[in-house]
Amino acid sequence: MDVTFRIRRYNPEIPGQDKPYWQEFSLKDVAETDRVLELMHRIKWEQDGTLAFRRSCSHGICGSDAMRINGRNALACKLLIRDVGEKVQLEPILGLPVKKDLIVDMEPFFDHYRSVMPYFVNNDPIPADGRERLQDPEAQQIFSDSTNCILCACCTTSCPSFWANGQYVGPAAVVQAHRFIFDDRDQAAEDRLNALSEPDGVWRCRTIFNCTPACPRGIEVTRAIGEVKLAIMRGTPKGVINPKDIKVHM
Length: 250
Ligand code: SF4
Ligand code: F3S
Ligand code: FES
Description:
Bound molecules: iron/sulfur cluster, FE3-S4 cluster, FE2/S2 (inorganic) cluster
Order of helices and strands: EEHEEHEEEHHHHHHH
Number of strands: 7
């Protein structure tokens, strides 16, 4: 089959390309099972080597090739052409500054990520037997979904609240916070919940729900956000969070 790509281009270093514009590319002999990322490589290698985009693993693991594909956020390496159609429109993800073509500046996204302390905190001495801190499988299940996040930013950059206010911490950061808040071995839940209670924290989420279908890992993003909101509302004196009490049903 023949496929036409319409790609949003921008290069601030080249006069004439320093305002966003659209460029079309035609590809012949495309198989239904080709992935969008493979075809982008064909365009770059066969037609225009200046086309700029991020990619690394090609297998939906690194999260680097998030972009808007026919108006929806997705990873280019995960979408087959038969699921996209013969006309493919590519744009950078929204709400972050564009650096070149499909590449955005991810630093504001990672600033929000860092603000929720996305790491394990436990100041107790290491167990005397020197083994790891054990956890019941049931307790792990409570935050297991959130551990699947690959920080691709598909959720945050599909959120209208984030588009309206880039200071909003965004769903990806809340998912990362959720992963540790509900870990019964962690001791910094209160600090994270305090950070998320700030004006640009979790309450900027208006439950618009764009984030959940945008997630290429199938994470129940809006559910995680709801559980964090409930944890804040119920009050969380240090060490007494009982995640089983704050499960959100959707
Ligand atoms: Fe990507 Fe999903 Fe993580 Fe959001 S929650 S950053 S969409 S993997
Ligand atoms: Fe945005 Fe998702 Fe909330 S789209 S408003 S973070 S439910
Ligand atoms: Fe790594 Fe697509 S290239 S997720």
